[in-house]
What we know:
The protein has about 425 residues and is an alpha/beta fold. An eight-stranded parallel sheet has the order 8-9-10-11-12-13-14-15. Strands 3-2-7-16-17-18 form a six-stranded mixed sheet, with helices on one face. It has a four-stranded mixed sheet with strand order 5-4-1-6. The site of fe (iii) ion (FE) has 4 residues, from loops.
Amino acid sequence: xxxxxxxxxxxxxxxxxxxxxxxxxxxxxxxxxxxxxxxxxxxxxxxxxxxxxxxxxxxxxxxxxxxxxxxxxxxxxxxxxxxxxxxxxxxxxxxxxxxxxxxxxxxxxxxxxxxxxxxxxxxxxxxxxxxxxxxxxxxxxxxxxxxxxxxxxxxxxxxxxxxxxxxxxxxxxxxxxxxxxxxxxxxxxxxxxxxxxxxxxxxxxxxxxxxxxxxxxxxxxxxxxxxxxxxxxxxxxxxxxxxxxxxxxxxxxxxxxxxxxxxxxxxxxxxxxxxxxxxxxxxxxxxxxxxxxxxxxxxxxxxxxxxxxxxxxxxxxxxxxxxxxxxxxxxxxxxxxxxxxxxxxxxxxxxxxxxxxxxxxxxxxxxxxxxxxxxxxxxxxxxxxxxxxxxxxxxxxxxxxxxxxxxxxxxxxxxxxxxxxx
Length: 422
Ligand code: NIG
Ligand code: FE
């Protein structure tokens, strides 16, 4: 047994202790806030968290290594439930072109868009892609994220998609950032099959999904269900193939149009429906009534200058909302959850408490990890952040710079800000 770690004297400890289900509606405002609280971790798991006297009464606290969080906020590590982090470099020509007013189709016509990243990823070796993902993983940890969903989707053929998933497995196994792999072959139709999209979908459903499942390379399958990409009927087929293979379901829903994808997700029991920019009353009703988490990625709206999804209406209707970065080279080159919290509060009018719940507990539920991740309670993973703030509301209030002073994954210090000596 390794010595325990005791984090004490925080000005505010946010435990998010509560019921074992995604937090919806008013539950999203419940922080489980303890003043001067403490957390005791041993062998990767939390032994006790909460009121200092109770935590210190545990015998393991006696010889624990002490970390002093005096005057700081302690909260669960962020669980970022949507990202596309395996790519081969930024898309700077797209960035400049968009600033000059070019649309998605024009950028694609100039050799940009998703397919340009596919070109780069197909050329890259596994080692090159792994080096890029390692660098990103470090940045996520520095920003306070301890668990990250990681999608494929820039390979678009069996070999290249499996290559990406193997990269995710390799870097995830190295740690310390925990990666949850998602296969999204149905991200776009590759150029070589642009006139035979039905054949590509057949390959996704009959070849790639079974292969990813057989090699245990994916936990979830996602599909970009939207105008110009994959139809509702296509998404249904992807869901059926995924369920047959025993994989969880996710969907890029109503990002570009009102498509009915949210209802499909709720009916199919998907873990999350993501983006939701065009979600209308029907989609909001379906998500509020079902168990599917509404995962919002407002960094992409910010970066593209597009209207934000109806976050307030979703929460007020009783949906469980998660917040994620959508880190990718095309629509959101941001790994910093603090920036997402800033956007969620100032642009979508989530309260600071709702936004933090969405970035921790509900992110965990969007990945099917709600019973082990996302809260600071006895038995949960020892994943937490000491944040450079005395009051939790400062986390979304200040923006434009990281604030994670110390990040712990499974009780181990995996990031320490320069000059922070707890
Ligand atoms: O989440 N919508 C699909 N996929 C990404 C963008 C991918 C890209 O442009 O490279 C997204 O926005
Ligand atoms: Fe995405």
